[in-house]
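Hello again, I could really use a second opinion on something today. Take your time with it, there's no hurry, and the full record follows here:

___
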Amino acid sequence: MKKPVDSLVLRRMTYADFRHINKVVGEEKGGGGQSYIDFPIKDIALKSWIAFLGKKTGTGAGKRPQWDFNVNSLGITAQKKIRIYQRRQASVSIASQKIHSKSSNRVPAWHPDNSFPVDYNPASDNLVIYIAKTTDKEYYAGWFLKNEIPKNWPVNAELKKIFEEESAGYIKFNSLVFIDTENKEWAFSFDPKAIENQIKTEETKDDDLRDEDTSPKLAKLADSNEKPAIVERILKIRQRNDKIVKNLKKLYKGRCQISGDTLTFKKSNGELYSEVHHLIPLGENGSDAYENAIVVSPLIHRMLHYAKVTKIDLTKIKKHKLKMKINGKEYEITWLPDHLKTVKKSLKD
């Protein structure tokens, strides 16, 4: 059975953690090792666990939250009630996963009887365990032992993160991803058309970096008299459909759908500089589609994000135009015929 996926937590197992939960009692001095699987808070914040698991079902040591819930296992008709709890300030853990223990409550998907590895080579293989939550709030556990993404496994930008996280991670899916509950190898799939041409070009990456709002950081430095630190960082940027951005800019020749060419400038190549704004933000589950996007000047774009903007109701478009207000001042969004067709089609659907 295929189900839409809402979110997912994952843990790239260290070999030490793997050995601890598989040691036989007496194998090491003082016992058989830890019984839990840790997820560092620095990788998955507590608020993400709350979003993933909902309200706590109990309280553990230090009045820290714990959750008891049923988890299914991909490809296996077995359900197990497990406990996830904040074991200490720095980590959240899955309890009782030590297999050779009287209190063992190993998730069936991660049990050797169900093909989970009894050992592996950490120098060449990566062992990843995960729990996926479906949109109907069911949980499914799975795993894979792969160093690279197999060519026959369908992977989009969001699923790719499962292979890229170095420790642990939380993924809230914005695209429509499905999980096949009967497939324990790689259960994920999606509509390929939904991610067509979403690979970022260097130009798009540069645009994202340039558009980043640094004013809060500068204000903090000014107030504290701190010297800006020179750091190396990786910027995580929400994936966008680059094809839509390029096609819309080309259609409007860089002119803003609200202000024309009065609030923009020409780039060194003579083209008007413009940006693409999503009427319903991607972070609020807005679609990355033509009907949800408009071409705007950089100033208008900032205003749409930070000023007081009246509600935009696409059903009220008349003669290719829609009136709106920004900070009390009247403006109009104007659509070209080919672009407006996509809007009308989405309203019918």
